[in-house]
Amino acid sequence: MVYEIALIPGDGIGREVIPEGVRMLEALSREFCFDLSFTEFPYSCDYFLRHGEMMPEDGLERLRLFQAILLGAVGAPGVADHVSLWGLLLPIRRQFEQYVNLRPVRLLSGITSPLVGRTAADINFLVVRENTEGEYSDIGGRLFAGTERELVVQESVFTRKGVDRVIRFACEMASSRPARHLTSATKSNGIRFTMPYWDERFRAITADYPELRCDQFHIDILTAHFVQHPDWFDVVVGSNLFGDILSDLGPAIAGGIGVAPSTNLNVERQFPSMFEPVHGSAPDIAGQGVANPIATFWSVQMMLDFLGEQKAGAALMAAVERVTGGGYLTRDLGGRETTRSFTDRVIGALGE
Amino acid sequence: MVYEIALIPGDGIGREVIPEGVRMLEALSREFCFDLSFTEFPYSCDYFLRHGEMMPEDGLERLRLFQAILLGAVGAPGVADHVSLWGLLLPIRRQFEQYVNLRPVRLLSGITSPLVGRTAADINFLVVRENTEGEYSDIGGRLFAGTERELVVQESVFTRKGVDRVIRFACEMASSRPARHLTSATKSNGIRFTMPYWDERFRAITADYPELRCDQFHIDILTAHFVQHPDWFDVVVGSNLFGDILSDLGPAIAGGIGVAPSTNLNVERQFPSMFEPVHGSAPDIAGQGVANPIATFWSVQMMLDFLGEQKAGAALMAAVERVTGGGYLTRDLGGRETTRSFTDRVIGALGE
Ligand SMILES: CC(C)[C@H](C(=O)O)[C@@H](O)C(=O)O
Ligand SMILES: CC(C)[C@H](C(=O)O)[C@@H](O)C(=O)O
Fold it and tell me: Which are the contacts of A265, defined by CB distance < 8 A and separation ≥ 6?
């Protein structure tokens, strides 16, 4: 069987880490005897500057038949976010019903947490983020523009379908983990309609999972608990915005966003899922060859898992941790490895 | 001159810390020769259970002529947040145009940060939170209730007046501090209407303050930076929701919400301002006499500052830090002091 993978390196350091991800996948495919076929798509801010759009009109159509998409990052100085992100990243997440954004947080071997006394035993949880609706909506607008009376409204939309399916998925994930603990992020004391609804559906869905220990925290104190009690968490489910926040804060206590991976998952596999390092295009360090490729490798591991090549994925992360555990780190983690030299080391460690 | 102070102990540990705040104020008034008159209001969840509302119909009217309100906390198990908070706390903030919520974060002497190697020199910033509009709106509702098609919408409303005045206040605060650095919390890459508007107004208002160094971060990565680079921040301004999150996360790196104070400020002084520990009613520890009164004392210091009694406020915080610096801490900080014994020590340290 040949796995058909779409590559979208995108912008900035996306173009530096995706080629290393491909190199890694090729090494793994030789070692674990599976076949991959890559098709690269140039959709990016560069593409936008040449064509006036982030991807061609049939862009999504072209991506639809792939099993997985490996995306680097989207965004460049001088191109507005509502163009780059709302023209590429968010349409993929939505059109392909990638309604779960999975973001594991774990302290890898050789990486020290900025939190006093915290080790790998304390930091090992999974953020499950709603990925298609909620606070990221394009309903809204402006009244009395340009005057003193000016006001802007923004609608958040939470649907039964959208809320239920992500909470149910989080329940399934929690049920499959030893701790069987699920935490819901909310803010129903301040956000009056959508968040109480989220709580209501959380209660309804979790009632089907009596084996789970469930709790909820308001997002304000939850961010504090991530820092003060990271060991309290196992699976944490949140809305699009709250999941976004928690999945940048989580990595901050575990090596930073240079290591943070993600899966944009279409659970039913009607459409491709997308695998993506969380770090973004990082224009400040782009072009220097110093980006940390761990977030990409970890995303590749999630992709291999998804494709059914669990062994290859496990071998990859074991190799990454042999290298980091040996003290070889990129600049963001205080080391001197480059994107390329780090990758070489991991490839070298694959067979060990 | 007699300062007229309204006291609302409220619920839970609010009733334990406010009396100590009063005791402290009385000690300070003797030492610094000013006069206070306290009027206590029983508005609380208890009041609700007896009267069916959190405060009488003319409750706000009764509070209006005080110079300051000292509030403990509102909220109790069994009373819905939309009753307790939307029936008392939020109406006070809104009716009295307390549009700035000021929340300083500073590592006090004797308190250790959970962040490796961080000292008082690294953690000293001020969160300026919009306090009357934004994401906390009561516009919204539910469609197709109880069916599979059910959906809930929630409106955020940002007005020119509301956004400009809080950003301008933050600029003034930043201008008065040595670092002259102002950071804006945004999420304009995901939240399409209100957040780009916030950015636009941030640019417009800060243009009047060329002496400031200004930057902005999306809320996701900003929470990560609070943990990884707390020393980057001086004054941070955010919307109602983002300011709320940052002002719980900030204290998490500086001793927790047991020490976090706040001022709900009506800048123009047409209405009373309200001073409030951030911690909430904490039903889990209420009644045990172990609540940390530092958040209340620090809020009292902000109140004294506001009233023009800066010397008394400075003496109070100096005494607090002499006590914490001597290793006397409440349970939340790993010590054995009770609310009362800690207060006694601070009163004892006032004269030193
Ligand atoms: C209780 C709640 C509504 C409140 C808020 O979010 O404003 C609290 O968290 C705070 O920060 O003062
Ligand atoms: C770029 C941005 C729109 C995106 C998001 O908030 O979803 C990013 O922060 C992420 O977390 O994938």
Answer: A98, A99, A100, A101, A102, A131, A169, A273, A306
Pick B220's closest partner by Cβ from A82, A153, A248: A248
C-alpha of residue A260 to centroid of ligand 2, in Å: 13
A253 interfacial to chain B (CB closer than 8 Å)? yes
| Residue in A103, A107, A151, A225 to test binding to B, most B beta-carbons within 10 Å | A151
How much is the pLDDT for A82?
85
Closest in B140, B160, B228 to A148, CB measured: B160
- How is residue B101 written in tokens? 């919520």
**C-alpha distance from residue B208 to each of A127, B172, B204, B205 (Å):** 41, 10, 8, 6
Nearest by CB to residue A153, choosing from B138, B157, B220, is B157
A227 touches chain B (CB under 8 A): yes
Provide, rounded to the nearest whole percent, the portion of chain B with pLDDT above 90: 98
Quote the percentage of chain A above a pLDDT of 90.
Answer: 98
Q: What angle do CA B144, A136, A270 make, to 5 degrees?
A: 75
**CB pair distance less than 8 Å for A160 and B150:** yes
Nearest residue of B to residue A84, measured between CA atoms: B189
Q: What strands, in cross-sheet order, belong to the sheet with B151-159? A: A140-143, A151-159, B151-159, B140-143
Average pLDDT over residues B274-280: 97
Instruction: Give me the percent of chain A exceeding a pLDDT of 70.
Output: 100
What distance in angstroms lies between residue A243's CA and the mean position of ligand 2's atoms? 10
A38-74 per-position pLDDT tens digit: 999 999 999 999 999 999 999 999 999 999 999 999 9
Residues in Cβ contact with B61 at an 8 Å cutoff, skipping those fewer than 6 apart: none
Mean pLDDT on B293-301? 98
- Whether residue B119 lies within 8 A of chain A, CB to CB, comes out as no
The answer on pLDDT for A239 being more than 80 is yes
Taking the alpha carbons of A196, A201, A207, A211 in that order, is the dihedral positive or negative?
Answer: negative
Find the A190 Cα to ligand 1 centroid distance in Å: 7
Q: Is the pLDDT of residue B352 over 90?
A: no
Average pLDDT over residues B135-142: 95
**Min Cα–Cα distance to chain A from B223, Å:** 6
Q: What is the pLDDT of residues B75-84, one digit of tens each?
A: 999 999 889 9
Q: Is B189 a residue whose pLDDT tops 80?
A: yes
Q: What is the pLDDT of residue B128?
A: 98
Is the C-beta atom of B287 inside 6 A of ligand 2?
A: no
Which of B148, B218, B249 to probe by mutation at the A interface, max A CB count within 10 Å?
B249
Q: Is B220 in the pocket of ligand 2 (CB under 6 A)?
A: yes
Across the A:B interface, residue pairs with CB atoms under 8 Å apart total 190
The pLDDT assigned to A1 comes to 77
Which tens digit of pLDDT belongs to each residue from A100-138? 999 999 999 999 999 999 999 999 999 999 999 999 998
